[in-house]
């Protein structure tokens, strides 16, 4: 035992350069990740602006009991799940379809321009895009002009003030922003498909659609499965930036999501303990979802971990 | 296919041309595909605002400093992680993986920044963003693809790890480093929540926060005053649009030049999957 300890010290001394490179990273993680994890304990305390971490009194599960009867919390929960589910339903398939369409184009300048344009919105921040959306949806904006021109509406309306439309605005704007970016991985997989498959299928007289259905899609099965599971595990994650930009007093009932709720009660109303409790509950559910989906992926990939 | 392109390009075009139109025609509506009463008045108003220049400077500073320090710091740590003979590597890996999935959440992190004295400091943009375990994994995988023999011969010549890292690994990993710097830089340029959480001093506002103030908040308040029949201050709207264009412009210019790197970067990230 003593000898092993001695060896360790000798080893550490011999690789002091390597150790000197990793220690700053470890210290960083302890300070910026582990200390906040420990700080989560204020969820079990009654913390006010006057307290410090150690003087705040313990209150056990009191903060979590409030969650159960908190109507705003449940509204935010419904909105988070509703918006995420819609995003999943629409935003998951569209990149696959778009990727197939791009793949079927012949190589050339048009294909390249297409791709460049479709990635573009990914690089706009939600703040910029939010500002644009506010303009497009305003009474004199693009959408009102468009809908009135084709006769869908006879009176201009501000869409962002209509809470019943908010979910769709949130979902469609998110899909619009990310659809092109989402094609990159699929295109990478498709580019590795052996072209002889297609040649063989052509000789057998398969139509283009049949080639897609029987060759392209089966070849992408793994990556589609994986992406689906990752998307499901992220269902509690709500897009905070998007919500902060698009939410206003008129649509708040349908727009508030869990993370913006945590921000509001914690940061603007200063109820630190309760906000942390909500945050903690949310993370626990997310971790459970992640672990479950990791298990499922493992099964799908013949017991090989993807992480 | 063409429809996809049109759906993406038309709204962006609309913002661009609207920003070149006079306030009056914006208020009347009817600006859709070509600017009406072409004017540069909106842009003149934007650039007259000293706050914009200040915010632009902050944005550039935090993007350049943030991205370069992030890449360097991650690369140093990743080099060490990539050596399987590193003592305690198992423990270090465990520490890293946990940070990828668990976090303290908004409030405890805020309290930490407060006790570190980072509130209302420029360094809150840089220091907490120095490190990302995910980027370390990507760099680590890249470092492992560098032939062992290069390192061995350097070792025989008596070079230590720091020297090997600086003289051999850094120059050979330029593509991977550039990719991570780019992603991180875009993140820094677009980031606004850090400012919203930790900064109240307007001198430290980056462009994104400026837009949030000019576009979103003013719009919200005008909506609340006259909910139902929203009438906006007409010149304000043009200025808002011009600000949006000015903020996005650097990305639009740089982006096509860097597109190749972005895509190869996605591939590096995807290898693990």
Architecture blueprint of SSEs:
The complex is a heterodimer of chains A (307) and B (273).
Chain A: H1 2-14, H2 16-39, H3 62-69, H4 71-91, H5 93-104, H6 109-119, H7 126-137, H8 142-149, H9 166-190, H10 195-203, H11 208-219, H12 221-233, H13 240-246, H14 252-255, H15 258-268, H16 272-300
Helix pairs in contact in A: 3-16, 4-9, 5-9, 6-9, 7-13, 12-16, 15-16
Chain B: H1 2-19, H2 23-28, H3 41-48, H4 50-81, H5 89-101, H6 106-115, H7 123-126, H8 133-144, H9 148-156, H10 161-172, H11 174-190, H12 193-198, H13 207-225, H14 234-271
Helix pairs in contact in B: 1-14, 3-14, 4-8, 4-11, 4-13, 11-14, 13-14
Task: Explain this structure.
The complex is a heterodimer of chains A (about 300) and B (about 270). Chain A is mainly α and about 300 residues long. Helix content of chain A is about 70%, strand content about 0%. Chain A contains 16 helices and no strands. In chain A, helix 7 runs parallel beside helix 13. The radius of gyration of chain A is 26 Å and the shape is flat. Chain B has about 270 residues and is mostly helical. Chain B is built from 14 helices and no strands. Chain B has helices spanning about 1-20, 25-30, 40-50, 50-80, 90-100, 105-115, 125, 135-145, 150-155, 160-170, 175-190, 195-200, 205-225, 235-270. In chain B, helix 1 packs across helix 14 (about 235-270), helix 4 packs across helix 13 and helix 13 (about 205-225) packs across helix 14. The longest helix of chain B has about 40 residues, at about 235-270. Chain B is elongated, with a radius of gyration of 24 Å. Chain B starts with a helix and ends with a helix. The interface between A and B is large, with 90 and 95 residues.
